[in-house]
Amino acid sequence: MKMPKDFLFGAASASYQVEGAWNEDGKGVSNWDVFSKIPGKTFEGTNGDVAIDHYHRYKEDIALMAEMGLESYRFSIAWTRIIPDGTGEVNQKGLDFYNNVIDECLKYGIIPFVTLYHWDLPQPLEEDGGWRNTKTSDAFVRFAEVCYKAFGDRVRNWITFNETVIFCSLGYLTGAHPPGIEGDAKAYFQATHNVFVAHARAVESFKKSGYEGEIGITHVFNPAFSIDDDEDNKFAERHANAYSTHWYYDPILKGSYPEYVTDALEAQGLLPEMTEEELALLRRTAPMNDFIGLNYYCPQRVMKNDSALVMSGGRENSTGKPGNPSFDGVYKTVMMDDKEYTKWGWEIAPDAFLDGMRMLKERYGNIKIYITENGLGDEDPIAGEEILDQPRIDYIESHLRAVKNAVSEGINVSGYFAWSVIDLLSWLNGYKKQYGFIYVDHKNGLARKRKQSFFWYKDIIATRAEEL
Ligand SMILES: C[C@@]1(C(=O)O)OC[C@H]2O[C@@H](O)[C@H](O)[C@@H](O)[C@H]2O1
């Protein structure tokens, strides 16, 4: 069976991780421009000052995407290029850059799929409380409206936020992302709520403005499964899914929070401040969401945390490797002997991916889904001139097969974006953890080179995954 003709085969990137040119053409300073220069915060002190210089090489990169036959390129817009201080004047050179990227994509028939927020917040907003401050939500809605107006005649696919759970949990629980706060659960939950409100307002504005196209949000998809049938561990599974998935997907798709969580937060004094107007907004806008974006890499295997293990902060505890307890200490993630893992301890589990999508359909109905990220972070072997990333081919093949099975079961998956189109800066792993179909040679002027997987994905797209 071939994937449907309107199914999108894409690949993704993010502004801070690829663009570089951190202070060029009027761009303002972002929280990541500052945070990445605090000693010890990033892997080997890496930062996005240059990244892979996509800002100057986007034409070369998009030509390579076209050579692959890529149908859609998911990229994010740096808020600090558009509104340098976050709330002030619009920077025309910032608009010019993204107009050029969009036009370059369209020149090849590549659909631009735009993420508005992929973690790089204007520093003045971060200093003013970041996502704990509702002023940031106000500023985000204006930023979104500037982008709709500037690009909405050619961009038909919009994602408001990428992985709220990551920038909020690492920002306020483990301190591995800006603003680098550890252990503040109240701030964490408040920040997530403020982001959901910002999302809802941006969706309503998009719909009211009559722009053509679709809008949604991208969440991490990290379904929890108990390590066994022990009732304590099955409880851990339900608890983990409530906090990792339902807390994030319910306010977007149901327009309300899971009571299991709000009741617990209220009892612990952690419930976010939420006005009736905000809750009415979430209810009103839930049906306006055209799709949900899933970033799936792996499931979480959980068990009741019967030890004194408590969540600890820092980069090392924030790279997703199992072994950490939940923020409330109720459960912990574990590695299992009969599972396969990446070098970073992420389980390779396409079956869990399909099981998880079935779970989502059961809870939220047949909402349109894009797989907005999926891929293998690895240290790719180089043999002479060849980058032989067969493990990445194997990983993506097995997960695309899961997507194909989901589609054949009637789950409404409309596209798949590999993370990442090109090797890029990983927030916490520097350039060590590669994801791309295109290699970037940091020892040779950031020269681009096609990997084995580049040619494999080209064939998958051309044949619409018929052989999978
Ligand atoms: C933590 C990590 C990683 O580096 O492996 O997860 C996978 C992928 O998720 C994306 O949303 C991030 O923008 C990208 O940088 C990657 O980040």
From TrEMBL:
GO terms for molecular function: beta-glucosidase activity. It comes from the Bacteria. InterPro entries: GH (IPR017853), GH_1_N_CS (IPR033132), Glyco_hydro_1 (IPR001360), Glyco_hydro_1_AS (IPR018120), Glyco_hydro_1_beta-glucosidase (IPR017736). Pfam families: Glyco_hydro_1. The active site is at residues 163, 373. Its EC number is 3.2.1.21. Substrate binds at residues 17, 118, 162, 297, 419. Keywords: Carbohydrate metabolism, Cellulose degradation, Glycosidase, Hydrolase, Polysaccharide degradation. GO terms for biological process: cellulose catabolic process. It catalyses: Hydrolysis of terminal, non-reducing beta-D-glucosyl residues with release of beta-D-glucose. GO terms for cellular component: cytosol. Belongs to the glycosyl hydrolase 1 family. NCBIfam families: BGL. This is Beta-glucosidase. It comes from Metabacillus indicus (Bacillus indicus).
